[in-house]
User: Fold this.
Amino acid sequence: SSELSQDPAVLSVALGQTVRITCQGDSLSNYFASWYQQRPGQAPVLIVHGKNIRSSGVPDRFSGSSSGTTASLTITGARAEDEADYYCNSRDSTYQVIFGGGTKLTVL
Amino acid sequence: EVRLVDSGGALVKPGGSLRLSCEASGFIFESYPMNWVRQAPGKGLERVASINTRGAYTYYLDSVKGRFTISRDNGKNSLYLQMTSLRVDDTAVYYCARDVVGSTMVDYWGQGTLVTVSS
Assistant:
């Protein structure tokens, strides 16, 4: 399959609350998803990849997990600076990159 | 330090052409497949085209096949996207992005260049 379904599309949480974003697709049974953070007006930044590997400088409140065809990004104790758009990605049957539809996170 | 610098975006009329460039530095460019990923205003990320390390294999989003051509010059550490027959729905910020074989990672992104197709 060449699709990734990301949920929720929009999410508002209170400061300090735990956030969970999911990404579902058949390809995720073969690959670990990668996760990106995109702040307004900026390019996406890789934050988590592989089996829960955080990019350099990414706080440990960000974590990734996977089960079957579903991958999840969890932010434990959301902070104001985490307000951004988040995207998952995987690969399709031709090994090309595919992206989830994105999640817009607001931290109140 | 890995750097990708996108350029070439502009305002162009429907049916027009444009060539985007991405200048890479800080890594062995010829060792990495590369992608062009676009983001329409208020929308998500969409891979437009990709190319393998030597430029022998290219892949395209269905909606741009026959109109866009991705290429690379490893001697100049540069990636290109030639866009022809541009349509209003090609309006987006275009990012070049480095691919990491053996993972799902697209680990470095350019700053993006805006292509606006409008009459």
Remarks:
- The interface with chain B takes residues 31-34, 36, 43-46, 49-50, 55, 87, 89-91, 94, 96-102 of chain A (CB under 8 Å).
- The longest strand of chain A covers residues 84-91.
- Chain A has no helices and eleven strands.
